[in-house]
Structures are given as C-alpha cells and as structure tokens.
Amino acid sequence: MSSYLERGARGRIPAIFDAGSFEEFLGPSARVVSPHLAQLDVPVSFDDGVVVGRGLLGGQRVFGAAQEGGFMGGAVGEVHGAKLVGMLGRAIDEGAQAVLLLLESGGVRLHEANAGLIAVSEVMRAILDVRAAGIPVIAAVGGANGCFGGMGIAARCANTVIMSEEGRLAMSGPEVIETANGVEEFDSKDRALVWRTTGGKHRYLLGDCQVLVADDTGAFRAAAIAAIEALTGAARIGAAALTLDALQAEQAMLERRIRDFGALAEPMDIWRQLGVPDPAGVSMLEADDFVAMAAGHRAGPVTGDR
Amino acid sequence: METLHFRFDAGSRPLPGAPQLVGVVSSGNLEVLIEPAALGGACEIEVRTAANGFGATWEAVMRDFHARWQLSDARICINDMGATPAVVSLRLDQAVESVTGGPP
Known about the structure:
The complex is a heterodimer of chains A (306) and B (104). Helices cover 42% and strands 12% of the residues of chain A. By secondary structure, chain A is α/β, with parallel strands linked by helices.
C-alpha cells in the first residue's frame, strides 16, 4: 500500500502514470505565476498549484493534471485554471485516448475573485468539450482537502469519478455551511458527520461516484485504467460524449433523490432507506468489503459511467 | 513580502540534470526550484518570503547550505510561507539531492 492521500500533486503523477512517461506542460521553471497574488502581497507558487501534461497510462496516451492541495487548498486561480483548460484543449488537438484529472481543491481561489470564477467555469466547459470530442474524462478524488465548490461540479462533469473513503466531494464545504446556516444545521467540527455527508462511501452509495477504492495509489491507477478501458472499447465508440438522454437521466436521479431523501437529515438514515443492512457499521468497512456490501443498494445509475 | 538575494562565488560542484521543484507553498513550508544556470561558477539564491525582517537568519541558513554543497552554476528560487530555518535547510538539501541523486 502506498497512500494516495499523503502524496502531493508531484508525488501522485509518477505513482499513477506509467513510470517515467509523464511530460509536464509549462512546468515550474517557466515561472508562470499568479499576477493577482503578487498584487495582494501573498506568496505565489511556481506552478500555481497544478501540474498539467501528458503521459502513458497502461500504455494508452492519456493527458492529465494534478492539483496541489497544499498550496491554498488547491484553489483555482486564473493561471491554474488556464493551465487546466490549455491541457484539455490540447488533449482534443492531439487526439488523446483519455484525460485523467487528479483533483484536490476547495474551488475558486477567492483572492482572484471574478478571474477565478471564470477560470473554473472555463474548466467545466473544457471538460465537456473533451467529452464531446469522444474522449473520456476520469476524475480522481482522494486528497486531504477533498474536492469542493466549482471543482466539485467540474468533477461531476467527468465520465467517471473515482474516490477513496477519505476523499470528499461536495459543493459547499463543511465550514461554509456552518458559517452560512449555523452550527445547528451542520457542525463542521464533527469529523464523522463531515465524512458521512461528503466522503467517498456516501458518494458511492448515492451514485455520485462510480468507483470506490482504498487509499492506495496502485488502486487509483488500476481503477483509472479500468475506467478508460470501459469507455474506449470497440463497442463504446461515442460513449464519452454527454448526451441529452444522459442529462435527463441525471435530472431524474436528482428528482428521485429529493423525493426519497429530502426529509432525511442524517446520512445513515439515507443508507438505511437504500437497504444497507447495518448503516452504523459502514464507516468501519474496508473498501473492498464496503463495495461488496453496497452492491444492490446504490441509488441512481449503477453502471460504471454516465 | 520580502525578497532577498544571495550569491556565492567559486563553487566547486556543478549541477547536472533538469530543473526540479520540491516542497509546497503552505503555512510553515516552502517550495524550492533548483536549476542549472551559467553564472560563472556562482550559486545564486532568490528568496521570496512572507515573513518580513528575517534577512540575517536567511543569510546564516544560506551560508550553511553553501558550505555543505559548494554548488556552482546553480540558480535556486524559493517561495516561502514562514518555514523555520530547519525546514528551509531540509528542503534545500532535498532539492539538491533530487538533482544529484544523493547526499554530498
């Protein structure tokens, strides 16, 4: 086992992609740093918190990115977003086999205000452009900072989301909810509650992530290779693109979610309603045992992609 | 923010290989970008730090670093977010070892 969570962006890339195959675009020595942070007298990072490039994954030509959660929580500024968008555009130009996004982000970098907001929306559009070109996009979420805000939405624009139990995926982060709506609404200090509502197991049961793996770089790598294979096989030509049917199915799933679970405040009650036999024991299950237990109890589309 | 410049002439150990980045710009931490550069045998270090007023401490840490490694034709750039001298020294050693492949 080699923890995915404990690695930074530059440690994850070589652990996930085929050894020595990754070629970085606009690396740190290019010194393309945030102009906004310098104006605010805040430290910059030489890669603006993201590694983008192309490499091989299981022998396939895969473009990819890794966000560095240690730098401003992986938040997306203008340069950070532009690097992601540029990589995604180049994946289309060069006919990549797939794109793999190793996401770890609190969302928009507030220091950069509108430029950051625009950057995140451009990332979402670029992900959908890649899919429209028939290239599958895989998102992996397993870092300590989770994947929140606009990048939470961006993750759900991917064909397949791979998570670990430790990974978190949501729109508003726990402290944002508590600040906005009060501690009675959500206690962000209650770590078990935070993971029950945003963690990988909850997302897997709700159908928001398609693959749940242990916190292990080898498991993330194998899951990414399998997800790409599932979306690029001869029978799956065109499967990567977002279709109207898929959007309507997604909308129906969200309507079912509100109808079935809208009155429930506790994730364990949702799991019970899904038929999970022992909701209180879910958090103690290892990834493989959990996935076996969850079979047949997941909400929404249960196929490996959308 | 404060920007500090250091230059140590007549190093004896040229830097091989490609540029490397180690560390991360987060609280109490720093990133170090190290790359070969034609500097007439010198090692130049640029520090951008969020903690103002620690120039003398930085100079002492950089002198120790140069005494350990004696780099020549090397450029080092640091983005710092309040790392302690011990962390700075460890990151600098890590940066050089990521290029040279081992300790001095």
